[in-house]
Amino acid sequence: MKRKVLSNKLSELNKELVTDLKSALDYELEKPFEKWNVTNIINLSNAIADIKGYTLSEEDVKRRTDSILSEVNHIISGKEGGSVDRNGLMQDNS
Amino acid sequence: MDLCRIIVERYYCDIYNFCNYNLNDSSAAEDCAQETFLELFRKRDKLYFTENILTWLTLTAKNVIKRYRNANQYEHEDISDYADKIQDTSDFNHNPMSIIYDNLSPAEAEMLIKYIYCKNTKEKEALAEVNNISPGALYVKISRIKKKLRNNINNKQ
């Protein structure tokens, strides 16, 4: 019984904390790019993910890193299906 | 290549969590995080790596998310919505599949249908591989096909 009460209390505290963190993050994101505090933004989004249990496992990060590196290999060897225009937008060459 | 791995491993979680917060969709966040790192490596010659990479990645991720949202604003629109659009004004078969085939080339229709039936990022990557293009190029291609389909449907109305 005591454990359940503590668990509920903890859950409530987590919700409050996430709400506070989201408010702080939204406040940062509403600022123009030039005024962004990137370190703060990243720390806040990491903290929210952590509390919500969205943190990626080492295996996930490794798998996704491998997937990105495989794409980088395509780019380096010039096999990519699209190219980047001067605005940084991907263009389809096919 | 080692440098690429170090950068991705170091910053992947930061960028993924940022994307996930903004999109509230883990699969879309994975796509956008990947595209952000690919942009970094596409522009590797122009970038000064002495500058703050995390800042560059975060701002790029914001732009990638914006492009993703623009390109996918009709993503959740069911095929039957296209049928509804046509139903009132056209006299041809109202089968959603035939709407796709009637308004696109056979190759485009086939690719769009295969893409629609992809359940997750892995299947989309596999589809890109079968077509011998990168997932990024597939994503651009599908966006253009959808745009063409919408335009053709609207022109017939």
What would you note in describing this structure?
The complex is a heterodimer of chains A (94) and B (157). Chain A has a two-stranded antiparallel ribbon. Chain A contains 3 helices and 2 strands. Chain A is mainly α and 94 residues long. The longest helix of chain A has 29 residues. In chain A, helix 1 runs antiparallel to helix 2. By secondary structure, chain B is mostly helical. Chain B is built from 8 helices and no strands. The chains are: A mainly alpha (94), B mainly alpha (157). At the A-B interface, helix 2, helix 3 and strand 2 of A face helix 1, helix 2, helix 3 and helix 8 of B.
Features:
heterodimer, A: 94 residues, mainly alpha, two-stranded antiparallel sheet, disordered C terminus, B: 157 residues, 8 helices, 75% helix
How is the topology of this model organized?
The complex is a heterodimer of chains A (94) and B (157).
Chain A (H helix, E strand, L loop, with lengths): L1 H29 L7 H15 L5 H19 L5 E3 L5 E3 L2
Antiparallel strand pairs in A: 1-2
Chain B lengths: L1 H22 L2 H17 L10 H19 L7 H9 L8 H8 L2 H11 L4 H10 L4 H22 L1
Helix pairs in contact in B: 1-2, 1-3, 2-3, 5-6
Short description:
The complex is a heterodimer of chains A (94) and B (157). Chain A is mainly alpha-helical and 94 residues long. Helix content of chain A is 67%, strand content 6%.
Q: Reading side by side through the largest sheet of chain A, how are the strands ordered?
A: 1-2
Output the structural class of chain A: mainly alpha
Strand content of chain A: 5-15%
Helix content of chain B: over 70%
End-to-end gap of chain B: 52 Å
Subunit arrangement of the protein? heterodimer
Shape of chain A: flat
What is the strand tally of chain A? Answer: 2
How far apart the termini of chain A lie comes to 64 Å
Largest sheet of chain B: none
- Principal-axes geometry of chain B comes out as elongated
* Total number of helices of chain B: 8
Average of per-residue pLDDT values of chain B: 78
